[in-house]
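Problem: given the chain below (358 residues), write out its structure.
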Amino acid sequence: MRSFTKINISQRLLDRAISFFDKLIGSLDPSAKNITIYGDNGIKMVGGDGILTGYLTVDQRIKRRLPPYILPLDVMKQLKGASDKVEIVFNDEIELSIGTERLKIKGLRGEKAAGIPHFIRTHRIKISSFINNIDFSTIHLLEGEETSILIAGERLIGISESDGHVACAISKMQGKEQSYFSLPYASARHLTKALAMVKVDEIEIGKADGLPAIKAGGLIISIDAQKRDETSVFKKVEGLFSSESKCQFFVEMKELKGAISRAARIQRLFPSVARLFLYSDRIEVIIKQPSLFYATSARTILARNPKDCAFTISPIKLLSLLRRVGGEKATLMVVKDGLLLKRGNMRAILITQSNHLA
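Solution.
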């Protein structure tokens, strides 16, 4: 008679774990959306999207050593039994029972448990600050693009560019070491959505077996990202926040977002870029196609040393960024590299495509 092991864990804990990995893995091909479950001083789960790998202790109370089994995530998401516990039987296959539901998975036993990587902390940061930083610096990107993440002493910097729209976020944190890596757009979005489910006030940043990593309680997320030379990125960031201009346009943020939002609605119906025109008394956004002309505007409060300028924008991208900037008023500065909007020393948006009007 073959031996088997039976355990019971909280359905609430299992549901939270499945939801977390669903966010972290994202929309991969269903055949690749798998998580591994095993026991080693706690019930552990491991899964990721190829760049991010999450190592989660689901239940610390169960200390048995249990072999690894591979679970198809999309199937696990369908288990909605009305019970407060889940019975799991580890045998030649793995069997899960929740209320009146029973799921048996055969032939997917893992060869070896991944094990929890050794984590070394270098920094601490509020989880809300980390999420907001990565969210702001990536919300305008497209699939296949990437963001640069620079850990510079007591600052976390995220910066990226898409179609002439540069977004940079700086957040304060505790630590001294410096490192830099790039993260694909999809993985960056997976990371923010997964961390939004973590119920802690602060996370740790550091290294896990040599890779950049994040730790929050019984969770470690390692990041198999490309390492880059941070010098050019650091100079770009410093240039953004040190830029000044005598040519400035002041506008109510609500007015500016309203105009960009109206143009974004048209852009969704008729995919195209728009032109943003700066005048002393108004900011005008125009979308022009062979069969379409659309214009909308926002009043300026004040203009200092104004000169008529035009910039090519994507209203959809710019609106996504403006919604995350905050503040009641916006100052638009015409600088050497384009049109710059800053909020203190924490957020910056630069539109790089421009030409001055005669």
